[in-house]
Every structure is written in C-alpha cells, then in structure tokens.
Design a protein that fits this description.
This protein is of the alpha/beta class and 278 residues long. It is 38% helix and 20% strand. Bound molecules: NADPH dihydro-nicotinamide-adenine-dinucleotide phosphate.
C-alpha cells in the first residue's frame, strides 16, 4: 500500500458477514479515489490496542460491528449521538483524536427521508417495536425529528422502561396487547426487533388498524422484503426497508475518511441486494 492511499476498515469478531466493504469499495471505485476499505477480524482482547493505534495499523478510520460497539464508545471521544445510543459504529482520526459517532441514527432518518419526503412534518405518534440497540438509535432519531410520543413495545418491559429512563417522557412503554389500539393513532410503525429475520420467529401483527397515510419501516434486511413490509404493501402503505437504512448509515463514515459525500444510488442498492440474495 502506498502512503498516498487512505484506508478504512470494518472491525468485528467475526467480520466476514459484513457488507460494509462492498458498499465502501463501490463508492471508492465510483469516485476514482486512491483509497481502500478492508475487513479486520479483531478479538475483544486485541481491540483496545488496535483502535488506540489505528494510524499505526494504516487506517484513518473504521466502522465497528459486533461485539465491539460499546468498547469503541469507551475508548474514543464520542459525539452526542453515540453517547445517547450507548454505542459507537463509526470512528475517525481528527488531528490525533479518535472520535466516534453512531450513524444508525441518520441511517434510519435519511432512509425515511428518501422513501417518504416530509414523513416527519406532522408526526405526533410513532410505535417502535423492540427496545434493543437499534431501537435506541431509532428513538433518538425520532426525538431529533420532533416526534412527540414514541410508544415502545417490547417483550421484556424493563427494556422499554430503560428506553424511557434514557430518553425521557416522550418514550411511552407499552404492552403488545395495546398494539392494535396504538396502531390506530400512529403515523409510523418501526420494527427494530429481530422478528421476521431469516432464522427467527415471524413478526405476526395485524396492520389493519393503521391509517392509510401511515408509514411502515422494518430494520430487518434479511430477507429484504419482510412479511411486515409485504403486508404493508398489500394495504397500500408507504414503506422503508432495512437495506435502505444500512446503505444510508454508511454515508457519513465515507465522507469523514475520504472527504467525499457519496450517494445511495439504485446501482449500489442492486449490488448489495444481489450479494444478500446469494
Ligand atoms: P438487540 O438484540 O439489541 O434487540 C433485539 C430486540 O428484538 C429486543 O427488543 C428483543 O426483545 C426483540 N426480540 C428478539 N426476539 C424476540 C421474540 N422472539 N419475541 C419478541 N421480541 C423479540 O438487536 P438489535 O436492536 O441490534 O437488532 C435488531 C434487528 O435490527 C436485527 O434484525 C438487526 O439485523 C437489525 N438492524 C438493522 C440495521 C440496519 O441498518 N438495517 C441496523 C441495526 C440493526 P427483548 O428485549 O424482550 O429480548
């Protein structure tokens, strides 16, 4: 590798499943940059040394995936988003400082912006299914966009309560049994559980109470077209899928490392769709 080549990587354990190299190397080729994006399989024991010496390892920044996102937060200088979400997924070197953010927040909101421009203009109520790591990013994004009430529906009630403790009274924990009533009054339904994912139990909910203007988003992207999104299409509702979020969350890391703001194009989407299909 020549010294003129800027390099970033995705760090995980394991890391071979990550689609980030496909996404970033597409943009590198598209923009004709002298840059590389690689995979680094790093154990939890080796992780602190690796990111503390990122430049010495040849990198200007990195994406962080399981199981290192919480450790990355502690070992870097996080921005408000990473702190609020409690996890860092994007690192960059800034004049010797190792900074971090969480781009799932903007991945979620930018994907909705692309799918339904103006979706947040009059949004008062949203229903979020799940209360795990991705739910924290979604809730933070919804609060940033001015959503007044976020009904957090989760199998384990304590985790929905923890979302309220973290983000404040706009988060309202609710039980699955209240879902039908909540759906009748919401403009947005988001699935952040792993239900509906290949190999997981299905997400069995009845969408008929939703208003015809409601938007349905699913974070699950394997399969691409989840049963939830298929049911929403069948009802003629607007949707935003998990692959769109995955692509949009990659934009800012690329810009931070390589100085070019890339676009989520139909060609990139087709490339990743093809890879997911294999
Ligand atoms: P977590 O493990 O942090 O949370 C999982 C959530 O799913 C919890 O709320 C959990 O409920 C719920 N859940 C799991 N199994 C069941 C079940 N059988 N019945 C009811 N609820 C269940 O995962 P993440 O939040 O990190 O990820 C969730 C999904 O989002 C995954 O499919 C992941 O691939 C996807 N994702 C997609 C992204 C994208 O860019 N598109 C980004 C990040 C995640 P409980 O608290 O009760 O255990």
């Amino acid at each position: 590798m020549s010294n003129d080549v800027r390099a970033a990587c995705v760090i995980g354990w394991p890391v071979k499943h990550s689609r980030s190299p496909l996404i970033h190397n597409y943009w590198i080729r598209l923009h004709g940059l002298a840059a590389e994006y690689r995979r680094e399989e790093i154990t939890p024991e080796a992780f602190p040394e690796f990111i503390s010496n990122l430049a010495a390892h040849g990198y200007v920044g990195a994406n962080i995936t399981l199981p290192h996102k919480e450790a990355a937060l502690k070992l870097s200088e996080p921005d408000d988003r990473a702190l609020a979400v409690g996890a860092a997924n994007t690192l960059w070197l800034d004049h010797g400082h190792l900074r971090s953010t969480n781009t799932d927040v903007e991945g979620f909101t930018a994907n909705l912006d692309a799918a339904v421009p103006g979706w947040d203009a009059a949004l008062e109520d949203a229903v979020v299914l799940g209360a795990g790591g991705s739910a924290r990013a979604v809730v933070y994004g919804l609060i940033e966009r001015g959503c007044e009430r976020i009904h957090a529906v989760n199998r384990t009630p304590e985790r929905a309560e923890a979302l309220r403790a973290r983000f404040g009274p706009s988060v309202q924990p609710a039980h699955w049994s209240a879902l039908s009533h909540l759906l009748a009054h919401t403009g947005l339904l988001v699935n952040t559980t792993s239900l509906g994912m290949t190999g997981q139990p299905p997400l069995a909910i009845e969408l008929s109470p939703l208003h015809e203007d409601a938007l349905v988003a699913d974070l699950v992207y394997a399969p691409l077209q989840t049963a939830l999104l298929a049911a929403a299409h069948q009802r003629g509702l607007a949707t935003a899928d998990g692959l769109g979020m995955l692509l949009h969350q990659a934009v800012r890391g690329f810009q931070l490392w390589f100085g070019v703001r890339p676009e989520v194009t139909a060609e990139l989407r087709a490339l990743v769709e093809d890879d997911l299909g294999r």
